[in-house]
Each structure stands twice: as structure tokens, then as C-alpha cells.
Amino acid sequence: MAINPRQMLGLGNTRPSMQYQQLNQTYQSDPRRILGQTLMGQGTSSAPVRTPLAGLGRLSSALVGAYLQRKAGDAQVEREGEYRTQLASALTGLGDDIPSAITAIGSVPGNELSALNAAANYQATVAAREPKTPVQMFNRKTRQVIPVIPGSREQTQAFKDGFEMGNLPNPETGFMFKDGKQVIRQGGKEARAQRDKFVEPIRKEEVKFNTADIAFKNAKDFVASPSGGSDTALIYNFFTTLDPGGRVTDGEAQMAQASESFGNQFAVKLRQGLQSGVLSADSRNEILKVMQGLVNQRRTNLQTSINNTASTIATLGFTPQNTFTYYPQIFSAAATVPSINNNTGDLPIGGEQILPVDGSNADPSITNATDDDLLRSLF
Question: Same domain for 88 and 223?
Fold first, then answer.
């Protein structure tokens, strides 16, 4: 009975199919295959055998080479088996919609890869026939949103009409979209911040106006009901109207400003009033009229400024009425001076000297005091 050399060496009869290119590189680089091939070449040499030992050595080389090559082949057979198992599992994982003919092909050993490729092509063909899921496009300018089928004529036309792929973007906080551009939302937080920055100088002036207006109203009360300390308070309120928010006790500066604005004679009356604490009725009325002019001038200037800002703050979603705190007072009737009752009892009347010309009846500490000293003593 003939002896199979492979069985003699304890090797199997299965040979690798070499049909999977992905695995062949591993087999080709297997060291056992390379060494076995070399030994096989030595064992099958046609050179004459000179001694029995040389013949035995050549036979041994051939046998060992065959053994090593076969071991490399068995490893390849094992890899191919695992790979076929993976292909069969992948084919099964494609689902039940794969035609039975393709499944049958995959059940034949060695055909698994062909069956898997056929199944993938089948699924791609089916997917191409199925309706595609619409995608969303938006127009940044019109804010319009439309669904379109990818690759369709409608999508091509939408691109031409200015549409973009994706969801309509939301504006930042305090902004909105208008004509494709992000603009400030009227009445929002950002709009309020810009408005406040724009009207800040006017707001400072309206605070001064309110201070001057209150001082003028107080002055009218002092003139209407003069008393021992009312003239001092009248002068105090005059300086407040002259420079709202300024330092009323800065006498030299206040007097200089009064002299520059209304003449030296008017400043002299104020100084005499500070020195004596008493004003004539005419002096009171003159001071009140000057205060009236100051308040009304501030009112007129503010009315002009506010009216000039109305259109700008309207674009931000606001009105002058809800922007300026003292809007009602600013746009009320102009300040007026009531008729003055000159019957003041013991107080000096118009035309009288408040102090003797030589000042002999005045306290020297008052007569020689500076305007700053007088104001500091009052307040």
C-alpha cells in the first residue's frame, strides 16, 4: 500500500484556496513558507549524490521543507476559514430582504465574498429607487424655510434663489434679522443700551434743568412770603439756578459768573444782600426774573435737543416720553414770575439803599468779608 508523505508527516490534506487577496500577503510573508521553499529546493537538487550521507541529507532537507511549507499552508487554510465565517455572518447581518438566490450563493464555501458583494449592490439599487428624505433649506434674507429632495431640480433652483442648506439661524440676544442682516431688536436690551449711551449728555442736562426749576419754584415762594431768612435762601436758590449741581458756597466764582452774565450792578445787589441778609422788593423781583430767564433758556435748549433725538431713539423702539425722566416738566408751560407785593413792612422797598453808602451801620466782620466768607457763613 502506498504511503502518503503528508500523512507520514502528520499533515492534513486540505490546501489553501488562495482566493482571498486580503490574506495572501500574510501567507507569502510567512517565514515557514520561505524557509520550507528553500529547503525543498535543496532537497530536490539534481546534482549527483556522492555519498549515502549526502543523499540522506538531501532527503531530510526535502522532508523538512515540505513540512514547513505545509504548516504555513495550514495556517492559511485556518485564516481562510475564519474569513469565510466572517463573510457569512456579514451576509446574514444584511437582513431578510436579501434575495434567496444571493443567500444560496453565499452558502457555497468559497463564494461568500461574491455573495456579500452581490448583496451590497442589491441594497444600493433598492435604495436608489426609494424616495429620498427631504432636507431643509432657508433664505437668509426672506427668512423663508423650504423642504427639498437632495439632488432634485427644486434644490438646484433653490440654490439659485439664494437658499442655503440647514436650519434657519437664530439672531443673537437683543438682535433680529431684517433683509438678511442682523439688526438691533427694537425695545430690546441692546437697543436700550445704545439709546442710553446716545442720550446720556441730554439726561445730564435735564437733571440740571430739574434742579434749576425746583430752585426757581422755591424762590417764588420766598419772594411771595418774605421773612427774615427768605432773602438769604433766595440768593442761595439763585446761585443754584445759575449753576445747577455746582458748589453754591464757592462765592467768588459765583459772583464773578453773575457779574459776567448780568452785569456788575446786579452782582453788587447780590453782594449787598449777602452782607445784610435783606433785599429790597425790586431786587427780589429782579433776581426772580433772572432766574425765570435761566430756567426757560434751559427748557428751550432741552426741548430742541430732545426733539432732535426723537427720530433716532424711535428707530430703537423708544419715545422721548419713556426716555427722559423730566419730560413732562421740560415740555410744560414756560416759567413765569407772579406780581410782587411791595408791601413788606419793615423790609426795604424798591429804590431804598440796603446799606448806608458808607456802611457805618454794618458789622465790620460782614463789611470786610469776601464773597466766599459770606456764603460759608450762610450755609
Answer: no
Q: Which of 274, 239, 229 is nearest to 371 (CA)?
A: 274
Give pLDDT < 50 ranges for the chain: 1-4, 250, 252, 259, 341-379
Tens-place pLDDT, residues 281-336: 888 888 888 889 889 999 999 999 999 999 999 988 899 999 999 999 999 887 77
Number of domains making up the chain:
3
3-class DSSP state for residue 178? strand
Instruction: Report pLDDT for 366.
Output: 38
Domain match, 140 and 76 both? no
What Å distances lie between residue 96 and 108, 114, 258, CA to CA? 18, 18, 103
Contact yes or no for 220/337 (Cβ under 8 A): yes
- Residue 265 forms part of a structural domain: yes
Closest CA to 266 of 295, 299, 298, 293: 293
281-315 vs 189-224: helix axis angle to the nearest 10? 170
Asked whether residue 145 falls in the same domain as residue 19, the answer is: no
- Structural domain for 340, as ranges: 189-378
